[in-house]
C-alpha cells in the first residue's frame, strides 16, 4: 500500500525500536491498550500478543480494513477506522477502569492529540502513554522552566502528566524516511490542578494568556489579556520578579500568581 503524505505517514521499520516502544508500556496482559495510527502494524503485531485487549484506531481507509482482516480471528484485537481526534475514549475504556495508549503521532496534529489525551487523562480514563513525535516537539514537551524550549506546550503537558524522554530515532528508522528525528516519550497521566489549588479551565486559560507573546514579560502578556495594572500590582507575589517571563517560572509559581489574582478579583 502506498503512503499517503497528507496523513503524515512514515512507517516504523526498525525492529529494535518497535520492540522498545512496546516494552515501554510494561506489562499489559491485563490492560486495554489503545493504539493511535497503527499503520502497517509494526507495533500492533507485538501488542496483539501481549495486551489483554488492543484497540487500534486507524484513519487510512486501506490500512484499517487490511489490519481488521489480519486480526479477524483474534477477538482481543479490534481495529477501528477512525480519526483519533473524534474518538470517544469513555466508550473505548473498560467501565471503571483505565487504558494505556501507544502511537506514532502525526507531526501535523501532535499537539491536538496530546490535548485529547490530557482531557481523557483528567477524566480518569487513561493511565499512561508511550508516544512518538517529532524531536523538536518532544523537546518542548519535556523541557524544564528556564530553558528556551519551555513554553505553553511544556506547561500544559506537565500540568497533566509526568514526562519521561525515552529515546530518539533517526529518519532511517522509518519508511519513507522523514526529514526529522523522532523522540519517544512516556507520559504518566497525573493532573496537578487539585494539588496546585487551581481550576482546570481557568488555569489553562491563564497559561495561554501568560505565554501569548514569548518576547513579552509575563506582566505585559497579562496586561494585554485584560488584567488591569492596578490589579496586577496589588496581587503580584513578592517571590516573582516583575520582569519575569512565563517560561522562567515553575508551575508552582504560576499557580501561586493565578490564585492571588483570582482571590483579588473575587474580593
Task: Explain this structure.
The protein is an alpha/beta fold and 267 residues long. The protein has 2 domains: 5-189, Rossmann fold (3-Layer(aba) Sandwich), CATH 3.40.50; 200-266, Helicase, Ruva Protein, domain 3. It has helices at residues 15-23, 44-48, 63-70, 89-92, 110-122, 135-142, 152-160, 200-210, 218-224, 229-235, 251-266; strands spanning 11-12, 32-36, 53-58, 77-81, 99-104, 126-134, 161-169, 174-175, 182-189. The strands form 2 sheets. Strands 4-3-2-5-6-9-7 form a 7-stranded mixed sheet, with helices on both faces. Helix 3 (63-70) links the parallel strand 3 and strand 4 (77-81). Helix 10 crosses helix 11. The longest helix is centred in the C-terminal third of the chain and has 16 residues, at 251-266. The radius of gyration is 21 Å and the shape is elongated. The model is unreliable at 1-7 (pLDDT under 50).
